[in-house]
Each structure stands twice: as C-alpha cells, then as structure tokens.
Design a protein that fits this description.
Layout lengths: L1 H11 L30 E6 L21 H8 L5 E6 L20 E4 L2 E4 L25 E5 L22 H7 L4 E7 L1 H14 L3 E10 L6 H11 L3 E3 L2 H4 L2
Parallel strand pairs: 1-2, 1-6, 2-5, 6-7, 7-8
Antiparallel strand pairs: 3-4
C-alpha cells in the first residue's frame, strides 16, 4: 500500500517518479487545531532542501514562494533544541536528470530497476551554487546537515530512505539514539520531499508533524491536497507555526 500510494501522487504530478503517491483528497490533512506544542529535548525540526536550486531563480524552483518561508523557519529555529537540515546532493550525470537519458525531457517518466522515475532538470549538483543552502537561513544551532541523492544510480526524496525503500540514510537511528521521538517537518516541497520525509518518519515510529505555513508545495494537478490526504492517512499531523511559537 505504501508504494502504491506514492506512485499515485507522481502520476497526478504530470508524470511518475519513484514508487509513491497519494490518494484522493477529501478532508485532506486535517489540522491539529487548538493544540500548543512546546519543543523539548525529544523534538527535532527537519528543514528540507532549502537550497538555491529549489528557490526562485534556481533550476528547479517549482515551489512558488519557497524563499518566503525562510524568515519563519529561522524564527522556528529559535525554539527547537534540535535541528536537522537536509540537502539534495547529486553527482553530475545523476540518474534522475533528463540530461542523463538521451531523447528524454524533464518531467518525463522512465522505468528504472527500482521503479518509475520522474526526470528532472539538472539540479543540486555537488559543489554547485544551486546545491548550496540559502544564505538567508539562520540556523546556527543546527546539529546535523544530512545529504541525500548522492548515489549516482538511485534517487532519494525522503531523508530517511532512498527510492529503493531499502537503502537507509541512518537518520532514524541517529534521532532514536539521541532520544528524539517527535519530528516537525518544514521546507520544500510539501507534496514531494517534505511529505515523503514525514511519512517515512511515521514509518520509522516517530510522532510526526508538518508545519504547513513553514512549507511550500509544487501543487501540480492537485498534488498538494493529495499529499495532505496521504500524510493524514499515515498518521502525520498538520499544524501551523503559531502552535509551536505560542508555547
């Protein structure tokens, strides 16, 4: 069911990527209203892919207004004792790049050994300006930057595991060893890397929240609503930043 769900989302996103997807939205992503969350030592904020290539002016800036959430993420960073930042970190010629497959175009879908893969414009190439984190991020207390998608022949949207659903990044073990049980996700894109990270956090046993106003989605053919629906079905909680900042 997990793999089938992911595949559905990507078809709604104009093409399919690696196994995944989201179901039909109705009361998608019911918000946890009236609750106040005070992040403690058992909580971590994961800041997903706030990199130049995913922000306005970048090679894959599909999440509109991605730069607009940076001040809020910075503010949230002052109340979380634990912060993890993720970074797409692809080698040149990565398997997810359309340029690596002659005769194909970005957003086209192909079959790969680990499943269906959406092809993207070249982005977040190791050592490039586009792969750098935005210089507007002010998260001096972040303890870990974890890179994903650095294996040339496999993609990775989630920061917990790669597209084959076998290769782990080690993040779950790191968090559990530190006694962290609650994960709060922010960043881009809500309906892709943020959603998959959140669902994999739940899969790994963490109580998981997505801070909606500190995230931005791509929203192709209703993919954002479908993502919220899928996250809700997996047990991910949808909250607003004031639920944390008001504590």
């Amino acid at each position: 069911m997990y793999k089938k769900d992911r595949r559905t989302l990507l078809k709604f996103a104009a093409a399919a990527a690696v196994t995944g997807g989201f179901g039909v939205a109705s009361t998608a992503g019911e918000a946890a209203t009236g609750q106040i969350f005070k992040p403690g030592d058992d909580s971590v904020m994961i800041v997903v892919d706030m990199q130049n290539d995913f922000l306005p002016g970048g090679s894959l800036s599909a999440a509109k207004g991605g730069d607009e959430i940076i001040p809020l993420i910075n503010r949230l960073g002052t109340v979380f004792p634990n912060i993890v930042i993720t970074q797409d970190w692809h080698p040149a010629g990565h398997i997810s790049f359309a340029s690596s497959h002659p005769g194909t175009k970005p957003f086209q879908t192909i079959k790969l050994p680990y499943g269906e893969q959406m092809l993207w414009p070249d982005h977040c190439v190791q050592g490039s300006h586009g792969a750098e984190l935005s210089n507007k991020l002010e998260l001096a207390t972040a303890q870990l930057i974890i890179r994903k998608g650095y294996h040339k022949n496999i993609d990775s949207y989630s920061v917990f595991e790669e597209a084959d659903h076998k290769t782990k990044t080690g993040l779950a073990g790191y968090l559990k060893q530190r006694g962290i049980s609650k994960v709060f996700c922010t960043g881009v894109a809500t309906d892709f890397c943020v959603a998959w990270t959140a669902m994999d956090a739940r899969k790994a046993g963490f109580t998981t929240y997505v801070i909606e106003d500190a995230s931005r989605g791509v929203d192709i053919d209703g993919s954002l609503a479908k993502a919220w629906d899928a996250m809700t079905k997996k047990g991910v909680h949808r909250i607003q930043s004031n639920s944390v900042l008001s504590a």
